[in-house]
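Hi R.,

Here's the chain you asked about this morning:
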Amino acid sequence: MNWEAVSFDWNQVRAFHATALEGSFSAAARALNTTQPTISRQVSALEASLSVTLVDRTVKGLTLTAAGQELLVHVRSMSEAATLLSMAADRQSQDIKGEVVLTATDLMSAAILPDLLAILRSQAPGTIIRIKDSNDIQNLLLREADIAIRHARPVQQELIATHVGDLRANLYASSDYLNRAGRPRSKEDVADLDFVAIPDPERMIAQLNNMGIPLRPTNFVMQPHSSMVTWETVKSGHGTSMLPEILGETEITVEKVLSDLPTIEFPIWLVTHRELQTSPKIRTVSDFLSNGLEHVAKRHC
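And the predicted structure, written out as tokens:
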């Protein structure tokens, strides 16, 4: 099919593109900040206008048809062009007012950002911060966010990453849980405790194994998808988990599981697309966050 000769509805194209990337209508809806029925209708409308089936809908989920895979190649180019156009417009604008999309983990978004952003609001009241709290990495190249706070340095050359500091993490559990389970006296004792998983439990297992704690997958009695749920679950007395000291040291109901365990440091990277560096509103927010997060890291290191 000659896709270049077809007239596209951009909203329908965005819905199809998000569905192809995310793998489901509901995930695409979350990515585009809309509803699942809207995404489904837009994809169906695009299929009707092209007289082809782009997505196979089965009980096992969605898969792209051959036509859908072919169209995705062209849509990806359209999306990249639209992103560059949007970035160019931001570079030309001298207005610091407007929306800036910030993505960070749910724990960072809930535990650290609110106090920082309260100060930003007083300094730049015309700036609206839309937070995408997600433990999944948002694609800055496709403008899924303007600024990202990450714990690993990105590898894409188009992205500019600034290391603003490090936070520390340790094993914490509620005092009530340790009263019931017993306080460990050795690293081997720690492996007898119940654990609440973080979103990436394999990473925790590897880290603790390297520290001499023989943690196993069977230690995990609960496995939340959200770090904030992990934190609340630990506070409720379900077990122990690796959590930032910025939380653990300020909560009177929890304590370190083993006082002489070495802490784990994890970096804070502030990331944005190099094409957005000259946008005044994004630069304002980026500089503010860089200074604010650096101060937080120094205060808790």
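The first strand starts at residue 55 and ends at 58.

Let me know if you need anything else.
M.
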